[in-house]
User: What shape does this take?
Amino acid sequence: MNISGFPLLVKLTNLPASSPSTETGQEEISIQENVVSAVIWQRWIACYMLYDWNLHHANSAYLSNKCGWVQQTYKRLEGTATDAASLKTTLTDTFNRILLEDVEDFIQTHMRVWKCDRLTVEFQVAKVTSEIFSNPKS
Assistant: This one.
């Protein structure tokens, strides 16, 4: 199977006999980000901006890292048995977990650098998130 140009060695189960995967051995499947992805993305951007208060830099860094997260997603799923019906959800959930692990790394780093507890960092992340992503009330 080939997902967005990257080989993914996943054994699919419960495939219909007419499935493209059974006929050609390849099927195009991409990671579909969802609302959970969007929330984690906001937290990632907020964590980044605690280092560099430039939204353009934060977005560029996110996009630069995204390819690596996608590759990590595929690598994590290599060799696993995945039901064809749930593959897209599995890909999205795995991608979200990898992104969340990166957010956690940001938080742990902030705690070490600032010599503070998690609540202090979480509070700052919440402040940045609300400042950047909240719609002003009219």
